[in-house]
Amino acid sequence: MIPYQFLITVRLGFKSLKLHKLRSALTMLGIIFGVCSVIAMLAIGEGASYEAQEAIKRLGSNNILIRSLKPPEQARQQGAGSRRGFQIKYGLTYDDAGRLLGTIPGVSRVLPMRIIRENVRFQRTEIPCQVIGTLPFYPEVAGATLVRGRFLAYYDEEHMENVCVITTGLARQLFPYQDPLNHAIKIATFYYRVIGIVQERSQPEQRSQAGKMEGQPLDNNVYIPLNTSRTRFGEILFRRSAGSFEAEEVQLHQVTVQMRDLASVETADPQIRTLLGRFHEDNDYEIIVPLQLLRQAEQTKRIFNIVLGSIAAISLLVGGIGIMNIMLATVTERTREIGIRRALGAKKADITMQFLVETVVLAVGGGLVGVAVGIITPVLVSHLTTMKTIVTLWSVLLAFGISGAVGVIFGLYPAKAAADLDPIEALRHE
Amino acid sequence: MSSVPPKPSSARRPSGRAGAAAGTAFGESIIRLEALQKTYVLGEENIVRALDGVDLTIHAGSFVAIMGPSGSGKSTMLNILGCLDRPTAGRYFLGTEDVSRMSDDALSEVRGRRIGFIFQSYNLIAQLTVLENIQVPLFYRGQDIKTSRDRCVELAKLVGLGDRLTHRPSQLSGGQQQRVAIARSLVNDPLMILADEPTGNLDSKTGTEVLGLISRLNQDGKTIVLVTHDDKVAERAQRVVRMKDGRIDRDEQRAPNATAAPAR
User: Fold this and answer.
1) What is the predicted ipTM?
2) Which residue of A lies nearest to B81 if distances are taken between CA atoms?
3) What tens digit of pLDDT does each residue of A216-252 get?
4) Which of B113, B139, B201 to mutate to test the interface with A (most CBs of A within 10 A)?
5) B-chain residues within 8 Å CB-CB of A421?
6) Which CATH superfamily is domain B61-83+115-253 in?
7) Residue A110 above 80 pLDDT?
8) N or C: which end of chain B has fewer CB within 10 A?
9) How far apart are the first and last CA of chain B?
């Protein structure tokens, strides 16, 4: 067919559809819902898995995280008898960090961290923070970037200097007007000089171990040399809460093991378990392998997408059947017109084309509206709830393509039925 | 209506595409039926011979009425003449082509290029305007509608509907609709115009007007084959072919009715 003639046929399709506006609209509705649900569902699924994956990626896929865990209540009760009632000892030790570095093959660095919750003061501003005692290579392992000044150095470590590096978020709150560098901030009873500001890659929610999260910004971290933390705060931490008094002895709150490559991450996981299992009676640590979590998340996402996809596909199928139904009715209704057109020189192919185009116009029209609604819906969803949604281009193209295909597939039969009518019978049709 | 401008049709005649292609001159035979048969097998024993050996020749520029009671085979005849149906046996020459064994697509092509239809119930397409209805046959010829628009407007004027181009069929009276159908039948410059009871749905006054228009077309050189059961309508024709039981019963030549021709 000549493109010009095709254009006329498309226009004719529009005209015929406009003749029955309500019917056309209702027919399109099936496709609109189908396309909309494909896009919206995939957007919500994509958003959910994106969030999960981002959270995992922030931990670093080359890393294995080992965190100290307070042993469960029962174990603690048993331990309490042997100890002095209010003091418990658990978690990773400095020796553990050394053993990890020395024993596990493929380890490039082991980063010990002590995480203590303490209020940080500058002049009259006091902000609850996580005070993290760590080593100078923290930024490389945990993925923090230095914004100003410098990070902790081995010199600071050796000399137990009272220096600290703060995160950008904290800097903004503590020093709204001043330049934080070289000012002294007070943590517990000592003063520490600010030597640098870092930007965290991660929302450090994974380090909520040291205490409960009580509605405070996650980004308030102060980094001090590990040795400083050890001497200034001691090994035993006291916690007071409503009439009770608790002391816990924890050497290290977290050890991040950085592996040389992705392959060694998987082999190292069971080795670490065996190694630590030998020195820890209680199950007072947990091992987190971001890479495995990532794999799981991807697997989950795939299943999620398949389920959502098939639901959406069914709704499109139903929409397609609706279209076919209406087109069959239309063909019957317009038998006379078909007869006239055949008498005036239309070939079977012309009639097929006419009805096919009409169906495709209906389906693609519904598809376009569906795409619009499908893009708006996830935006609304993420606006009204906290869910994150991502409308991907491929899901839009997929949904739109399917709607076109539905038009062709479900239009073919009615169009063929129309073309196969006997012109004489069709002309006689009332 | 009373003053049909003869100019467009007579000017078109020598350069007319269909006429030139078929190479027909006035008086030459444009329809030749040879021992035409059409049988319908309804059951094992039940075979209906709707046409049972029809021989007929129609010359260019003539006005032929085909008459007969119902069941005489005139509808079947009309369908075959109009290339809507194929004969079971025998041959049908339209112009120089044998159309009796053509494929479905080829017949569509022939209908679109060589035949103009006028139906009893007008058969206009409801969702199209007057102008668009006239253009339909050109569309299926693959012709650019924009370039042929002037011609279609001219035809609409010829049938007296120059001011109704954008109306829908439902906004027109029966007589007007039939005139649109006549304009549509002319748009291809066909070899023959096939009219099936063109006045059957019209009152006598508008019927007479429409018949006047058809006679006028004949006077301008169009070949007209008209199927009717109305003697008054048949009066207009120069020749009346009467059918009975699938055969031609009588074939009367008559002088054109001089008094009937001018529009009343």
Assistant:
1) 0.86
2) A343
3) 345 788 999 998 888 888 777 766 656 666 677 888 8
4) B139
5) none
6) P-loop containing nucleotide triphosphate hydrolases (3.40.50.300)
7) yes
8) C
9) 10
